[in-house]
Model the fold of this input.
Amino acid sequence: MEKTSKKPGAQALAAGELALIDRYWRAANYLSVGQIYLLDNPLLREPLKAEHIKPRLLGHWGTTPGLNFIYAHLNRMIRKSDLDMIYVCGPGHGGPGMVANTYLEGIYSEVYPDIAENEEGMRKLFRQFSFPGGIPSHVAPETPGSIHEGGELGYALVHAYGAAFDNPDLVVACVVGDGEAETGPIAASWHSNKFLNPARDGAVLPILHLNGYKIANPTIMGRASDEDLRQLFSGYGYEPFFVVGHDPADMHQQMAATFDQVFARIRAIQDAARQGRADPDRCPRWPMIVLRSPKGWTGPKEVDGKKVEGFWRSHQVPVSNCRGDDAHRKILEDWMRSYDPEDLFDRDGRLKEELRALAPAGKRRMGANPHANGGLLRRKLAVPEIANHAVAVDPAARGQLMVQSTEMLGRYLRDVLTLNAENRNFRIFGPDETESNRLGSVFEVTNRVWMEEIEPYDVHLSRDGRVMEVLSEHLCQGWLEGYLLTGRHGFFSCYEAFIHIVDSMFNQHAKWLKVSRELEWRKPIASLNYLLTSHVWRQDHNGFSHQDPGFVDLVANKKADVVRIYLPPDANTLLWTGDHCLKTYNRINVIVAGKQPEPQWLTMDEAVRHCEAGIGIWEWAGNEEGAVAPDVVMACAGDVPTMETLAAVDMLRQKIPALKVRVVNVVDLMALQSAEQHPHGLSDDAFNRIFTTDRPVIFAYHGYPYLIHRLTYRRTNHGNFHVRGFIEEGTTTTPFDMTVLNELDRFHLALEAISRVPGLAEKAAGVVTELRSKLEEHHRYVREFGEDMPEIQGWRWPG
Amino acid sequence: MEKTSKKPGAQALAAGELALIDRYWRAANYLSVGQIYLLDNPLLREPLKAEHIKPRLLGHWGTTPGLNFIYAHLNRMIRKSDLDMIYVCGPGHGGPGMVANTYLEGIYSEVYPDIAENEEGMRKLFRQFSFPGGIPSHVAPETPGSIHEGGELGYALVHAYGAAFDNPDLVVACVVGDGEAETGPIAASWHSNKFLNPARDGAVLPILHLNGYKIANPTIMGRASDEDLRQLFSGYGYEPFFVVGHDPADMHQQMAATFDQVFARIRAIQDAARQGRADPDRCPRWPMIVLRSPKGWTGPKEVDGKKVEGFWRSHQVPVSNCRGDDAHRKILEDWMRSYDPEDLFDRDGRLKEELRALAPAGKRRMGANPHANGGLLRRKLAVPEIANHAVAVDPAARGQLMVQSTEMLGRYLRDVLTLNAENRNFRIFGPDETESNRLGSVFEVTNRVWMEEIEPYDVHLSRDGRVMEVLSEHLCQGWLEGYLLTGRHGFFSCYEAFIHIVDSMFNQHAKWLKVSRELEWRKPIASLNYLLTSHVWRQDHNGFSHQDPGFVDLVANKKADVVRIYLPPDANTLLWTGDHCLKTYNRINVIVAGKQPEPQWLTMDEAVRHCEAGIGIWEWAGNEEGAVAPDVVMACAGDVPTMETLAAVDMLRQKIPALKVRVVNVVDLMALQSAEQHPHGLSDDAFNRIFTTDRPVIFAYHGYPYLIHRLTYRRTNHGNFHVRGFIEEGTTTTPFDMTVLNELDRFHLALEAISRVPGLAEKAAGVVTELRSKLEEHHRYVREFGEDMPEIQGWRWPG
Done:
């Protein structure tokens, strides 16, 4: 069966140009192989000896020659049309290729002067690769020109689109490997074209690089016919172009001709949209390229009688025992010499002038494009005064007012959109939940972006909205990452349970930030801000499948410098937190807050003080005035736990007035850790002043209770911490019943307090009986009437 | 623009049949609306009053009528051809529809006799929905006939394929909503057709149900043209059929005609393959259906002047204030009466006979199909004796032998495959890593399954392999879930870091198991077994992006009944663990073990005893003979930490012979928890006997150190636990350097031990200096030579 359909070879390149671009490609390939193998003798001035070979051969050759091939041809297009372009390298294994190309451009030596453009620099370039104290084997933050670490596959295309939004002059070339093409996130990412506005945004040029194999298997798309691929990508809304073959000269001609065509197509789409000539009801058919080239192209054809080039055996190190086996070393030497290094580098080891001329200059070099070091381009976000959006809380009537806190944040975000409208550098992301999460005020000043048809009865859809909604957390996260990494700002609101869908993307972004912070030349980017709402305690329409507060457990595993977790209990604290997070950089901030009406506790001034401290005693809620120490500390973190704690305290104070109660609220979870573990951690002294050193602490926590233990186990009073939280009980039921099922409700909290104060259970036996019977009464009532008892629904803090 | 292309209406149904099927559909719709709204008056014997309406209206109408429509037509096909079919309902929000249909079939009342087929039963059916003490709003384990909870979207189609593998007579009808169709996992799942063998496996019939809207937005595919969708699904390798419209009579005819066609097509594909008439080089083009029907079909057209039917406003509860607002209640009553309940149910509230006849009988009912309660069909897995695969460890020369432990497990798994070959009920899943993870022995008896072209030089690919490899953890996990839920067994090996990609799928499966265990009628299914290998400590080719041991932290949040975590330190313990996990049911077992050569510690007999206890003192490694208590406890969990601990103990015993050291190894992490928190938890007495109540414990742990604190904070000696683990430091470097970067290496462990034993640091000041200088020496050596010092590489336990 004929799988591929070649085009008649258009002669896009004159013979001289072809020879030059082929030499440039060979130079990149030579440097790539050198990085994988050589400790010394970088220019092969002498025959290869065992001691020139690294003791441990680590890295991935298979994908690299194809990546280098694309790079050389993109350089040609940049020079030809003065393009502003970056290269997103999905097959991140191909680290040697990206390093090689940025070295050829000169930018690598500018960033790392120790790796100079001479023989000694080349020796160091080779040696450092996958070497202790050197650089990792993958494209990484250390690689100039990259916004994308390729370790975990699936996110290249969504990063590329994120980079292109609001960058009308930018072209993002994005290579997707055929391994990566099997992942879910990529499979959905192709639909990002429905969200890219050619008038306002830049262009993404996806290049699906089919080399046919993964680690030890063929790939789905590698074995698919051209016709199936043509249909698939046409169905996704693209215009596919094919470049297929293995003969370098032919492939250079095909690639050059195809690039000429697709860049003309991109320009035509943009011109039409920007000059108002485009059919406003048609999402443009952007070009994409399918490039079929052999895995391990130009490498050894066979090793030990086994097929290597064009097969998965070239995935990592095609010929492995080059130190110990003379025949293997000979294969390597022949392979490297096949690129003819004398034809590429001068006596000093510097790329020859006529080849240097093939790279673009200055910031046009893809390794030096400032979009790939987004902090360079980041403009400060303008934010409104949070006081303008404050809820007016009367200190004499706390908890009386019921407000949807996220609605207040929505008004604040509306103003952020307005203030930065001109800069076009702020977007809101979410899986179809902006309105549902009560952030709908933003639609007073913007819309959801939508490039497919818009019907007359549609609501808040437009071609230039700044709210991005798609039912894929992967796309929301990836777009936002790409947007931030290129110097902009954003905000992601998501159902709490389903943020787990992007756990691994969060991990990778946290890793990127951790390493970036260690590189002085990488300038800080805006923080990635999550609002997790529709949380575990208020899944009224859904139930158990929507109940999981564990994302923050994962977050707490990451480097303290990088992560923050906030649990604001009401609107004013949420406003402070949201505002604070938007002003930070190089972090991941997680805010957990409900969208349902809830009691409002603090004035704005109090909220500011409370949030700045991260934790505090709510004196107005306790009754320890004059006591040396309280009998019990009632602590809480999270909006629902705070309400239940205050309801428990209200009961305790009424029913056992002699009991001295302290109420502590935690907004910034990291304050619980010790100061040496986290920059926000309280000193032990401060912690002891708040939680005492010997009194029982009943801690009502929003999520899995273990996290509080993990954060506080070093504290003096930890043995007296009794934490309640979500214990995986739940279903579709009433809000209060959810807390009862997980024993986080006011009655359980009050009962636990009584049981933990020495001697109190006996003295207050009547209260214990009464509280237990209340639980019974609740149980009967809710099952009979399907709603919470009026006294629960109507409870308000006495003020 | 014309979006849809109608086919000429074939008259597949005679007039009488059409009227019947329409009435059946109306019955399901009536029951669906009743569940969302009514507390009482289920048959509308009297005008609707406020008190008949639920106080809290929860649920999702929008998707439900379409689901009911499909159900009715699938019933017709089952009866017509005696099909063995299950229904996977991707839009799990449509819970009322699945409940309604299984009630109409009679199976609901068989499973839940209290919900009888009469007026009182119907009243209870309505009342229990989304009601405290009742059933959740989504399709859930409580729903007969379901293997799929629809809360988190994206997994319907992988579950369907998982169910179809090795079930040649089964047809899995799988409805994918257009919201779900935007997710990554679904977008990749369409490629599952490349892994389904028509000769050996059953069929999956995907029905893409486009009702056009998500919560508050149109959907990508809902707004795509038929032509784009035709190309897209053709490109995925399917033959798409379209059913488009809103007029019920027309739609019934279209659906019936289309089903007649597609089921004939399925049968033809299967016949050709099974009779050897199919082109073996062609992956068959299975049919799939695109059904476009209005969201909220047959519901209120408008409410309060706003468009509802055919728009996102019908997503949840189309008319909301039916208790308080007479006009709204009137809309509801008119809507329900539009289905004409008297025409559907008899005086007793039972479905009329002529309609009952439309449902299949007995186990052919989709709600009663045993495949959807897989435990009914589960056959015990045959397993070999683990002793046959034991590594021969000489107790006099422990740690001398270096073995790749996962390779031993691979041989065991090979035998499992052989022993169960005839039953065709065991498969191995992994993202292209079976060989890389050293499980390659399985390829002696089976292959990877592959339905695209196979080239002559391909290795271990075939049409009927039992190893499923695709570069998508989502597909591996989802296929395995579907396979297990329908009563089979499986094993998933994955790179440790990238299992986070399926965190949320793990969550949902754990939730499914938790609820299933509470339902007596749901029979136990085989456990979901993970082998996490290529772990954090041995990412030689990769580096930081591949280093994350945090999956187990997430696992530990789940219900203790459901989860187990094992860290076998060598091959024999790995064999016991793997064997044990394969014999368990209704659990999720996580095994973490490296694939690199590592020292072997225990004989098989010792391994059995050690693993059965889950934790134990390694007396041969310590030197406390005769002492009342050791000076220090060196504890370890995980293969690399075990090796580093023993190397530290080796040094301590040589250099400070007077120091009494105890070595404790933990295989079963849950043993650390207290017995009341986890069934595997040690009693406090046993824990104290092992860890003492007052001696320092230096705990070398495989993952993030906090987990050990979280598991042990209640223990008497917890204050003396000093845990070392992964602290997010790493890159591409040597294996030993990785442990040094994270301060988990032998030198740091020995130094910590010395520092924690009172007075020892002063006495052993020379040793401290020596160990510190060793660290310096390592640092210099590794950066100069690129490999670990010979004394590190060559270290062996003295035996």
